[in-house]
Amino acid sequence: MMANYIDRIAAELAAKLPDCSADLLRVYALLVLIEGQSVTEEDVHNAWSVWRTVTQPGHPALVPFDELTPDVQALDTPYVEAIRAVAKAHANEGAVARSLQWRDEPS
Description:
The structure is a single chain. The chain is an all-alpha fold. The chain has one domain (5-104). It is built from 5 helices and no strands. The chain has helices at 5-16, 22-34, 41-55, 70-74, 77-104. α1 packs across α2, α2 (22-34) runs antiparallel to α3 and α2 (22-34) packs across α5 (77-104). The mean pLDDT is 89.
């Protein structure tokens, strides 16, 4: 059975973020699609917070991003980098596909 597009993106993220659960990777896949290369640490924290609210609602980091210490905020940077890398690869694929489609159109 072929994975759907969300699970394919999540699998790409899993290769870069092996410590994440499948459910969290799917939330991060949404960031790939919505924020793409513009994703921020705050976006990642908010996405993580949605997931963590279900898995551990009393977690001490379930506060707005600007209330976290700089050290805790910095923990989101590797996730931002992975999401941006996957988003960039998808953006490049889209540009190539559009270019090929344009070439195949009749004049």
